[in-house]
Amino acid sequence: MDYINVVLLFLVTYTISTSQLDSNFDAQYKLMDQFLTIKNLDTAHLYTCWSQSDRIKAMKKFNEKKIAVTYRNKEDFYGNFNLNDLFTITVYSPLLGIIVDWSCNDDPLFKFSASWLWSASYHWLMMMSEKSNNIQSFLTSKNVNLTISSEILLAYPIMMDGIITNWHIFDIYRTAFEPRGKLMIDVVNKTLGMWGNRLWKFDKRSNLENLTLNVVTVGNPYGTLTKKNGTDIKPSSEELVKYLKTFNLDRLNSVQKFSFAIMDPLTRILLNMTLKIETTNSWGYKVNNKWDGIVGMLMSGEADFSISLNALRSERYDVVDYSAISTWKHLPCFIFRHPRSSTASTNIFLRPFETTVWLSIICVVVLSGFVYCTIMHYESNQTFSPRVLSDIVLLKIGTLCQQGTVMEPTKLSNRLIVLLMFVFSLVTYQFYSSSIVSGLLRPTVMNIDSVQKLEESGLDVGVEDFNVITKVIEVYGEMNPFLKKIIDSKIKPKSEYLLAKDGVKKIKKGHYAFFTDPATSYWLINDIFTEKEKCDLSELALHRPETTGYLVQKNSPYRKLINYANCILWETGLMQRELSIWHAEKPKCTAGKTTTEESLVSVEIKDVASLIAFLIIGFIGSFAILVLEIIIHRHKTHTTAILVKNN
Description:
It is a single chain. The protein is an alpha/beta fold and 647 residues long. The protein is 46% helix and 17% strand. It is built from 22 helices and 20 strands. A 7-stranded mixed β-sheet has the order 2-1-3-4-5-6-7. The longest helix has 38 residues, at 609-646.
C-alpha cells in the first residue's frame, strides 16, 4: 500500500512539474516571438534552458515566421570563443537578436569582455530569475557598460504556483558610458500593453539629464599658414561661446557661428546636455600619417563630437562618422570682376570694321584720288607734281573726315567726285562712330572659365587666410599644373594670404582674383560694391559643392540622437533662418535692367592709348621731316652761294 502511495505521489508530482514546464515554455516562447517580431529581427542567438524537444519545437515555429535562430549551450557561452565570429552582422542582416535566460545560465564569475556588444546593432532580451531584482548590481557584476543607443530589455517573470503568468519588462540604458552619465530604467509595459507605446527608442531618450559632454570646434582658423592673421590666444569656454554668438561686421568665422547657432539649441534645449568646448585650429587632415585637429581629437577620445561643420570627405570615413548633414554647402572659389579684353582696348579704333572693309575704303580713296588727279590734269593742264599730289591727299582725307576743302573744282565731273566722296564718308563715319560708342557701352570681357585661362589672364591672385581655404587650394594645386604655377608665381612670392575684408577690397579695385568662401565674402561685397561692380562679378570653382555635417566618434552612440534632433530643427524652420543669417548668396545684378549714371562706361586711358601713340609718332615724324628740310635747304643755299662766288 505504501508502495502504491509513493508511486501515485511521484506521478502527480511529475505531471504537475511537466505541466509547469510546458506552461513556462509557452510563456517564454511567446515573449521571444513578440520580441523578435516587434524588433523586426530575422536572426537571433538563443541561450535557453529548454530541453532538446522544446528547442526543436520552437525552431520549427520560428522557421515558419522566417526567423533564423541558433541555439548555444551554456558551456559554449562561457567558453573561450571568438566573439567576432559568433556575433556576426552583415549588410543584408544588420541587426542581431540575442536572448539569454539567466535563470539557468547565471555564473557569478562570468563577465562580458567586449563593449561593442552593447551597440545598437545587437538587440538583447534577458529573461531574469524571479529573485534578481537589483538591476545596477546585475549590470556591474556582468560588466555590462551601456550607452544611450543600447538595446537591452530585462524581462522579470510574474510567477503564480510556479507558472509564469506575465512579465515585467524594463528598457535600460545609460546617458553615457561609465563613469559618466547615469543609468536610466524605463518600465516598458506599464501602460498600453506588454510592449508599451514606444515608436522609436529616442522618443524617450532625448533627455540626457544635463549630461556634460566634451565637444570641439575650430577656434582660430586664421593665419595657420602665414602666421600673420592669426593668434595663439586660447579663449575660455565662456569667451568662446560669447564670440560664437556675436554678429559682427567682419563676418569672420561664419561657418563656425552658423554651426554653433544650430548645435546650441540642439544640445541645450532638445537633448538637455551641457557642452564643454575645446578648440583646435584645424578641421582634421592627415599629416605624416597622423590626423590633426578635430579628427585627431575625436580619435583620441578628447571630444565626443564636433560643433563645427566639416565637408564630407571619403578619407575620413574610416576613422570618424558624420552626423546631422547640413544645408550649408562648402564651395570655395575664385571671385573676380570681369576684366576688359586687352586686345579690345588696343584695337578699339580698328575694331569697328573688318580688314576687308578697311582695304575697300583705302581702295575707294585711292581710286577717287586718281580720278580727281586725271580730271584736274585735263581741266587746267597742270603737270603732276608732289605739291599737287599732297593737295589731293589732303582733300581726300578731309573728305573722309567730314571736313571741307580749299580746292575748288570747276568741272562738273570733279564736283560729282567730291559730292559722292562726301556721301560715302558720311555713311562710313556713322557706322564707325556708332560702333565705337556701342563697344564702349558693351565692353568685351575675358571669358575666364578655367584655371588655365585665369593663369594666362594676367590677373593678380590672392587667397583667404582661412585654414580650410588654404588647404583646398594646396590640395588642388598638386593636381592642376596651372594652379600650381599660380601659387608659386603669384601667391607665395607676394604672400597674398589675406583676410576676407582685405581681399574683397582688392576685388573692388579690379584686376584681382580672390580665392575665398563666397558664403562669407558676398556679405562684404554686398556692403561695399556698387550695382555696376556687382554685375561684373564672376566665379571660378575648383570642384563641385561639398555637403557638410558634424563629426562624431566612430560608432558613436550619439550619432542618431543628433540626427533626430537636427531633423526637428529643420522641420521647425530654425535651420533655414540661421542659414539666411550666416550664409550669403551671390548678389543679383540689377544695373543692367535700368540705365543709371554708373551703368555708363567711361573711356579709359588704355582705350585711347593707340591714338595718342599715333599722334606722338606723327609729331616725331613731322619734326624729323622739318629738320631734314632745314638741312636740305641749307645745303642748297650753301651750294648756290659757292657756285655764284666761283662764277
